[in-house]
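hey so u asked for the seq, here:
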Amino acid sequence: MSLANTMSYPRRQSLLSDEGSKWFLSVLAVATVVIIVGNLFIPETSALHVSTYTVTLFGKYLCLALLALAVDVIWGYCGILSLGHGAFFALGGYAMGMYLMRQIGTRGVYGDPVLADFMVFLNWQELPWFWLGFDQFWFAMLMVLIVPGTLAFVFGWLAFRSRVTGVYLSIMTQALTYALLLAFFRNEMGFGGNNGLTDFKEIVGFDLQSNSTRVTLFTLSAAILAFAYLLSRALFQSKFGRVIVSIRDAEARTRFLGYKTENYKLWLFVYSAILAAIAGALYVPQVGAINPGEFAPLNSIEVVVWVAVGGRGTLYGAILGAILVNYAKTRFTALFPEVWLFALGGLFVVTTIFLPKGVVGLLSARFKRNPVESEKTDDQTPAQTGGAA
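ran it, structure tokens below
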């Protein structure tokens, strides 16, 4: 008996999806090379030159695409709609920001070799204990993984063990990020309050404002995005991934077959949170600031819109949606700043009604070469469709 029900989620990545993966990775590689060459080797006087601003902008898009991938991992394949992944993104960003602040040293406004400028302004006499170790890059990167991962583990363990699902879980994730927003706004928390962390100078000894550093960060963002995509794809082609998909389609039946579904959901949630945190850590040095606004619930809701527009349950669809929507946001906020949020909401409504499988689903339907073969794919056995058997 098939575990799949009538939900609108994609059941399985077909051969067309394999071709889509090849296209995605190829386009990502070519675009990365073109941008690097256009910036480093083509003179500024040429029309083909890619400015450092453009490099940074696309680096930002790639970080947000990684965040969308993290949400698609948990929503598209496990059916858990998280409205709080912005919290993990921001925590990863703050861990990186704390490292960058420690690198400023005496070059700050107040010239204190240890305390950040906001600490001197607030008359703090010594560095808070939770800032210790952030002068080391390896320690900061470890915290990027451990802090959001631990929070996701504790939250997921409490929620999934209690079998909280559906809209209740979504509301809880949003409440989590809103609570962190309120906490980080407070000056006494020791994270810069409303202004957050900014005025970064260098990363591992390299000037953050230099052209070569910007290109390196962009290249690193592209490489990590490709690696995260391949890792996630391999995960969902494994037995673990097939169980995850069966939980999405029919959790009660999967539990009846002997699987501890709460454990599977927990570890996928932690994995997804870590991906979001890495995205935040890559985002901060390229944008140059991190503040409590990144915890805003609206940011997490926007990520869901990106995934829905691109096509959930496809991985590369979420990436495509993030890049398309954020590019449109960059363009239209400059031209029509008052109506952009209305346009974003309208885009989500139109996508939900007319493109339930997103842009990728529309393209797949248009270029599908053998409809009969597609119908057979939908009628495969649970083992073939990714369900537990």
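Residues 16-302 form one domain. Residues 1-16, 370-389 have pLDDT under 50 and may be disordered.
lmk if thats what u needed
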